[in-house]
Amino acid sequence: MGAQVSKQVERRKAISTEKKALVDLKQSSGIDFPGSDYHPTDRKNWMLGLDPGKLHINKIVWPGTHDSATNKIGIPCISRPFAQCQSLSIYKQLVRGARVVDIRVQEDRRVCHGILLTYSVDVVINDVKKFLSETQSEIIILEIRTEFGHEDPPEFDKYLEDQLGEYLIHQDDSVFGKTIADLLPKRVICVWKPRKSPQPKPGSPLWSAGYLKDNWIDTDLPSTKFESNMKHLSQQQPVTSRKFFYRVENTVTPQADNPVLCVKPVTNRIHGFARLFINQCCSKGCADRLQILSTDFIDEDFVDACVGFTYARVEGKA
Q1: Residues 6+ apart with CB under 8 A from 190
Q2: Considering only CA atoms, which of 6, 145, 161, 152 is closest in space to residue 69?
Q3: Which residue range or ranges hold the Phosphatidylinositol-specific phospholipase C X domain (predicted)?
Protein backbone atom coordinates (compact mmCIF):
# COMPACT_ATOMS: atom_id res chain seq x y z
CA MET A 1 0.00 0.00 0.00
CA GLY A 2 2.82 2.41 0.91
CA ALA A 3 4.52 1.84 -2.43
CA GLN A 4 1.29 2.52 -4.29
CA VAL A 5 0.69 5.75 -2.37
CA SER A 6 4.26 6.85 -3.05
CA LYS A 7 3.79 6.12 -6.76
CA GLN A 8 0.64 8.22 -6.88
CA VAL A 9 2.36 11.10 -5.09
CA GLU A 10 5.11 11.02 -7.69
CA ARG A 11 2.55 10.90 -10.47
CA ARG A 12 0.77 13.98 -9.13
CA LYS A 13 4.11 15.79 -8.91
CA ALA A 14 4.92 14.88 -12.50
CA ILE A 15 1.56 16.16 -13.74
CA SER A 16 1.96 19.41 -11.79
CA THR A 17 5.50 19.89 -13.12
CA GLU A 18 4.42 19.29 -16.70
CA LYS A 19 1.46 21.67 -16.48
CA LYS A 20 3.78 24.34 -15.06
CA ALA A 21 6.22 23.77 -17.93
CA LEU A 22 3.52 24.62 -20.45
CA VAL A 23 2.33 27.62 -18.43
CA ASP A 24 5.91 28.92 -18.25
CA LEU A 25 6.41 28.39 -21.98
CA LYS A 26 3.19 30.27 -22.68
CA GLN A 27 4.34 33.18 -20.51
CA SER A 28 7.77 33.35 -22.15
CA SER A 29 6.73 32.75 -25.77
CA GLY A 30 3.22 34.15 -25.89
CA ILE A 31 0.48 32.74 -28.08
CA ASP A 32 0.70 35.01 -31.11
CA PHE A 33 1.15 33.64 -34.63
CA PRO A 34 0.24 34.83 -38.12
CA GLY A 35 -3.53 35.19 -38.18
CA SER A 36 -3.94 34.78 -34.42
CA ASP A 37 -6.12 37.89 -34.24
CA TYR A 38 -8.46 36.68 -37.01
CA HIS A 39 -11.95 35.56 -35.97
CA PRO A 40 -14.45 34.26 -38.54
CA THR A 41 -17.72 36.16 -38.58
CA ASP A 42 -19.61 32.91 -39.24
CA ARG A 43 -17.99 29.70 -37.96
CA LYS A 44 -20.66 27.61 -39.65
CA ASN A 45 -19.45 28.93 -43.01
CA TRP A 46 -15.82 29.78 -42.31
CA MET A 47 -14.49 28.13 -45.48
CA LEU A 48 -16.86 30.23 -47.53
CA GLY A 49 -15.57 33.29 -45.67
CA LEU A 50 -11.99 32.52 -46.72
CA ASP A 51 -12.99 32.26 -50.42
CA PRO A 52 -13.33 28.71 -51.81
CA GLY A 53 -11.49 29.75 -54.98
CA LYS A 54 -8.36 30.69 -53.00
CA LEU A 55 -8.49 28.01 -50.30
CA HIS A 56 -6.41 24.97 -51.26
CA ILE A 57 -7.07 21.68 -49.50
CA ASN A 58 -3.43 21.29 -48.47
CA LYS A 59 -3.26 24.82 -47.02
CA ILE A 60 -6.13 24.37 -44.56
CA VAL A 61 -5.45 23.89 -40.84
CA TRP A 62 -8.43 21.65 -40.20
CA PRO A 63 -10.06 21.93 -36.74
CA GLY A 64 -10.93 18.40 -35.68
CA THR A 65 -12.57 16.58 -32.81
CA HIS A 66 -11.25 13.47 -31.09
CA ASP A 67 -13.70 10.60 -30.42
CA SER A 68 -16.30 12.86 -31.96
CA ALA A 69 -19.54 10.92 -31.39
CA THR A 70 -19.27 10.39 -27.63
CA ASN A 71 -21.63 13.12 -26.44
CA LYS A 72 -24.20 10.53 -25.30
CA ILE A 73 -21.98 7.51 -24.73
CA GLY A 74 -22.49 5.15 -21.79
CA ILE A 75 -24.70 5.90 -18.80
CA PRO A 76 -25.03 9.53 -17.64
CA CYS A 77 -23.09 10.32 -14.44
CA ILE A 78 -21.94 6.67 -14.21
CA SER A 79 -19.88 5.46 -17.17
CA ARG A 80 -20.19 8.50 -19.45
CA PRO A 81 -17.51 10.64 -17.77
CA PHE A 82 -14.94 7.90 -18.41
CA ALA A 83 -15.45 7.95 -22.20
CA GLN A 84 -17.08 11.24 -23.18
CA CYS A 85 -14.70 13.38 -25.22
CA GLN A 86 -17.29 15.76 -26.72
CA SER A 87 -20.39 17.34 -25.23
CA LEU A 88 -21.89 18.43 -28.57
CA SER A 89 -23.58 16.42 -31.31
CA ILE A 90 -21.77 16.02 -34.62
CA TYR A 91 -24.09 18.60 -36.18
CA LYS A 92 -23.33 21.16 -33.47
CA GLN A 93 -19.59 20.49 -33.74
CA LEU A 94 -19.74 21.19 -37.46
CA VAL A 95 -21.75 24.37 -36.87
CA ARG A 96 -19.15 25.45 -34.31
CA GLY A 97 -16.46 25.04 -36.97
CA ALA A 98 -15.06 21.49 -36.72
CA ARG A 99 -14.24 20.04 -40.13
CA VAL A 100 -12.67 16.67 -39.18
CA VAL A 101 -14.64 14.13 -37.18
CA ASP A 102 -13.35 10.86 -35.71
CA ILE A 103 -15.98 8.11 -35.51
CA ARG A 104 -15.44 4.60 -34.03
CA VAL A 105 -17.91 1.81 -34.80
CA GLN A 106 -18.50 -1.84 -33.97
CA GLU A 107 -20.05 -4.70 -35.95
CA ASP A 108 -23.69 -3.63 -35.50
CA ARG A 109 -22.89 -0.08 -36.74
CA ARG A 110 -23.23 1.44 -33.30
CA VAL A 111 -20.69 4.05 -32.29
CA CYS A 112 -18.43 2.97 -29.45
CA HIS A 113 -15.43 3.97 -27.38
CA GLY A 114 -13.80 0.82 -26.08
CA ILE A 115 -16.57 -1.27 -24.52
CA LEU A 116 -19.00 1.63 -24.07
CA LEU A 117 -21.74 2.21 -26.63
CA THR A 118 -23.89 5.03 -27.90
CA TYR A 119 -26.20 5.65 -30.84
CA SER A 120 -26.16 4.13 -34.33
CA VAL A 121 -23.80 5.60 -36.91
CA ASP A 122 -27.00 6.62 -38.74
CA VAL A 123 -27.22 9.51 -36.26
CA VAL A 124 -23.76 10.70 -37.34
CA ILE A 125 -24.55 10.42 -41.04
CA ASN A 126 -27.83 12.29 -40.61
CA ASP A 127 -26.06 15.08 -38.70
CA VAL A 128 -23.45 15.36 -41.46
CA LYS A 129 -26.11 15.49 -44.17
CA LYS A 130 -28.12 18.09 -42.25
CA PHE A 131 -25.05 20.32 -42.00
CA LEU A 132 -24.20 19.85 -45.67
CA SER A 133 -27.77 20.73 -46.68
CA GLU A 134 -27.51 24.03 -44.78
CA THR A 135 -24.13 25.08 -46.22
CA GLN A 136 -22.65 25.31 -49.70
CA SER A 137 -18.86 25.49 -49.52
CA GLU A 138 -17.81 23.66 -46.34
CA ILE A 139 -15.79 20.45 -46.86
CA ILE A 140 -15.61 17.76 -44.17
CA ILE A 141 -13.11 14.99 -43.52
CA LEU A 142 -15.15 12.12 -42.09
CA GLU A 143 -12.93 9.45 -40.57
CA ILE A 144 -14.71 6.22 -39.64
CA ARG A 145 -12.82 3.28 -38.18
CA THR A 146 -13.67 -0.03 -36.59
CA GLU A 147 -12.84 0.34 -32.90
CA PHE A 148 -9.93 -1.72 -31.58
CA GLY A 149 -11.12 -5.13 -30.40
CA HIS A 150 -14.29 -5.06 -32.50
CA GLU A 151 -15.28 -6.57 -35.84
CA ASP A 152 -15.98 -4.60 -39.02
CA PRO A 153 -19.64 -3.86 -39.78
CA PRO A 154 -20.69 -6.04 -42.75
CA GLU A 155 -20.70 -4.23 -46.13
CA PHE A 156 -20.00 -0.94 -44.39
CA ASP A 157 -18.28 0.56 -47.42
CA LYS A 158 -21.46 0.06 -49.43
CA TYR A 159 -23.49 1.64 -46.62
CA LEU A 160 -21.28 4.76 -46.63
CA GLU A 161 -21.41 5.05 -50.41
CA ASP A 162 -25.20 4.68 -50.40
CA GLN A 163 -25.65 7.27 -47.67
CA LEU A 164 -23.14 9.90 -48.85
CA GLY A 165 -22.69 9.12 -52.54
CA GLU A 166 -23.66 12.52 -53.95
CA TYR A 167 -21.27 14.30 -51.55
CA LEU A 168 -18.24 12.01 -51.73
CA ILE A 169 -14.93 13.30 -53.08
CA HIS A 170 -13.26 10.24 -54.62
CA GLN A 171 -9.83 9.03 -53.53
CA ASP A 172 -7.33 10.87 -55.72
CA ASP A 173 -3.89 12.30 -54.91
CA SER A 174 -4.62 15.35 -57.06
CA VAL A 175 -7.22 16.51 -54.50
CA PHE A 176 -4.48 17.87 -52.22
CA GLY A 177 -3.48 20.54 -54.72
CA LYS A 178 -7.01 21.64 -55.54
CA THR A 179 -9.10 24.43 -54.10
CA ILE A 180 -12.45 23.94 -52.46
CA ALA A 181 -14.06 25.55 -55.50
CA ASP A 182 -12.42 22.90 -57.71
CA LEU A 183 -14.08 20.11 -55.71
CA LEU A 184 -17.58 21.51 -55.28
CA PRO A 185 -20.36 20.36 -55.25
CA LYS A 186 -18.63 17.31 -53.70
CA ARG A 187 -18.17 17.96 -49.99
CA VAL A 188 -16.92 14.91 -48.03
CA ILE A 189 -13.55 13.17 -47.89
CA CYS A 190 -14.57 9.92 -46.17
CA VAL A 191 -11.67 7.87 -44.79
CA TRP A 192 -12.81 4.31 -43.99
CA LYS A 193 -10.44 2.33 -41.75
CA PRO A 194 -11.65 -1.28 -41.37
CA ARG A 195 -9.69 -3.70 -39.20
CA LYS A 196 -10.01 -6.79 -41.45
CA SER A 197 -12.09 -5.87 -44.50
CA PRO A 198 -10.33 -4.70 -47.70
CA GLN A 199 -9.16 -1.09 -47.78
CA PRO A 200 -10.78 1.29 -50.30
CA LYS A 201 -8.93 1.25 -53.62
CA PRO A 202 -7.56 4.22 -55.58
CA GLY A 203 -10.32 6.04 -57.40
CA SER A 204 -13.05 4.70 -55.14
CA PRO A 205 -15.57 6.97 -53.37
CA LEU A 206 -13.88 6.22 -50.01
CA TRP A 207 -10.30 6.91 -48.93
CA SER A 208 -7.99 4.29 -47.40
CA ALA A 209 -6.33 4.47 -43.98
CA GLY A 210 -2.99 5.69 -45.32
CA TYR A 211 -4.51 9.03 -46.23
CA LEU A 212 -5.03 10.07 -42.60
CA LYS A 213 -2.04 9.51 -40.32
CA ASP A 214 -0.97 10.51 -36.83
CA ASN A 215 1.49 9.53 -34.10
CA TRP A 216 -0.77 9.13 -31.11
CA ILE A 217 0.85 8.40 -27.73
CA ASP A 218 -1.08 7.19 -24.71
CA THR A 219 -0.24 9.57 -21.87
CA ASP A 220 -1.90 11.84 -19.35
CA LEU A 221 1.18 14.07 -19.07
CA PRO A 222 0.56 17.33 -20.94
CA SER A 223 4.11 18.48 -21.66
CA THR A 224 5.09 14.96 -22.72
CA LYS A 225 2.22 14.95 -25.24
CA PHE A 226 2.95 18.51 -26.39
CA GLU A 227 6.61 17.72 -27.04
CA SER A 228 5.77 14.42 -28.75
CA ASN A 229 3.33 16.23 -31.04
CA MET A 230 6.01 18.78 -31.93
CA LYS A 231 8.65 16.12 -32.52
CA HIS A 232 6.52 13.99 -34.83
CA LEU A 233 5.12 16.99 -36.69
CA SER A 234 8.63 18.31 -37.37
CA GLN A 235 9.50 14.97 -39.00
CA GLN A 236 6.73 15.31 -41.60
CA GLN A 237 7.06 16.81 -45.06
CA PRO A 238 5.54 20.25 -45.67
CA VAL A 239 1.83 20.16 -46.50
CA THR A 240 2.56 21.18 -50.10
CA SER A 241 4.64 17.99 -50.57
CA ARG A 242 2.36 15.49 -48.81
CA LYS A 243 -0.28 13.29 -50.40
CA PHE A 244 -1.97 12.44 -47.11
CA PHE A 245 -3.46 14.26 -44.14
CA TYR A 246 -1.43 14.39 -40.92
CA ARG A 247 -3.17 14.94 -37.59
CA VAL A 248 -1.91 16.30 -34.30
CA GLU A 249 -4.20 15.74 -31.30
CA ASN A 250 -4.15 18.36 -28.56
CA THR A 251 -5.36 15.80 -26.02
CA VAL A 252 -4.14 13.67 -23.14
CA THR A 253 -5.70 10.43 -21.99
CA PRO A 254 -6.66 9.05 -18.54
CA GLN A 255 -4.42 6.22 -17.35
CA ALA A 256 -5.59 3.13 -15.47
CA ASP A 257 -2.95 3.52 -12.75
CA ASN A 258 -4.05 7.07 -11.92
CA PRO A 259 -7.01 7.90 -9.66
CA VAL A 260 -8.29 10.59 -12.07
CA LEU A 261 -10.06 8.54 -14.75
CA CYS A 262 -12.66 10.96 -16.10
CA VAL A 263 -11.76 12.40 -19.48
CA LYS A 264 -12.53 16.08 -18.96
CA PRO A 265 -10.28 16.91 -15.97
CA VAL A 266 -7.44 14.98 -17.57
CA THR A 267 -7.67 16.44 -21.07
CA ASN A 268 -8.08 19.93 -19.60
CA ARG A 269 -4.39 19.69 -18.67
CA ILE A 270 -3.51 20.40 -22.32
CA HIS A 271 -6.76 21.77 -23.74
CA GLY A 272 -5.87 25.45 -23.30
CA PHE A 273 -2.52 25.22 -25.07
CA ALA A 274 -3.62 24.89 -28.71
CA ARG A 275 -2.61 28.46 -29.56
CA LEU A 276 0.72 27.88 -27.84
CA PHE A 277 1.24 24.83 -30.05
CA ILE A 278 0.70 26.85 -33.24
CA ASN A 279 3.00 29.55 -31.84
CA GLN A 280 5.70 26.96 -31.23
CA CYS A 281 5.24 25.45 -34.69
CA CYS A 282 6.02 28.89 -36.09
CA SER A 283 8.99 29.54 -33.82
CA LYS A 284 10.52 26.10 -34.43
CA GLY A 285 10.12 26.22 -38.21
CA CYS A 286 7.55 23.46 -38.69
CA ALA A 287 4.41 25.56 -39.23
CA ASP A 288 4.40 24.51 -42.88
CA ARG A 289 3.71 20.94 -41.72
CA LEU A 290 0.63 21.66 -39.60
CA GLN A 291 -2.58 20.34 -41.15
CA ILE A 292 -5.17 18.71 -38.84
CA LEU A 293 -5.33 19.82 -35.22
CA SER A 294 -7.86 17.93 -33.09
CA THR A 295 -9.16 18.39 -29.57
CA ASP A 296 -11.57 17.08 -26.98
CA PHE A 297 -14.55 19.31 -26.08
CA ILE A 298 -14.07 21.68 -29.00
CA ASP A 299 -14.70 25.37 -28.36
CA GLU A 300 -14.81 28.57 -30.42
CA ASP A 301 -11.29 29.70 -29.52
CA PHE A 302 -9.81 26.43 -30.80
CA VAL A 303 -11.69 26.83 -34.09
CA ASP A 304 -10.62 30.47 -34.39
CA ALA A 305 -6.96 29.55 -33.87
CA CYS A 306 -7.06 27.01 -36.73
CA VAL A 307 -9.07 29.26 -39.03
CA GLY A 308 -6.86 32.23 -38.23
CA PHE A 309 -3.69 30.39 -39.22
CA THR A 310 -5.44 29.14 -42.36
CA TYR A 311 -6.36 32.74 -43.19
CA ALA A 312 -2.71 33.74 -42.81
CA ARG A 313 -1.70 31.02 -45.27
CA VAL A 314 -4.31 32.13 -47.79
CA GLU A 315 -3.08 35.71 -47.50
CA GLY A 316 0.57 34.64 -47.87
CA LYS A 317 1.43 35.68 -44.31
CA ALA A 318 2.38 32.19 -43.08
Answers
A1: 142, 144, 160, 164, 168, 205, 206, 207
A2: 145
A3: 51-192
Expressed as residue numbers, the domain containing 61 is: 7-314
Per-residue model confidence as pLDDT tens digits over 73-95: 999 999 999 999 999 999 999 99
Q: Tell me the CATH number at 230.
A: 3.20.20.190
On whether the CB atoms of residues 249 and 47 are closer than 8 A, the answer is no
Q: Cα separation of 268 and 136, whole Å? A: 34
The predicted-structure confidence for 148-179, as pLDDT tens digits, reads as follows 999 999 999 999 999 999 999 999 999 999 99
Does the residue 1 lie in any domain? no
With respect to residue 286, please indicate whether it lies within any of the assigned structural domains. Answer: yes
d(CA 62, CA 102): 13
- In this structure, the strands spanning 116-120 and 110-113 are antiparallel
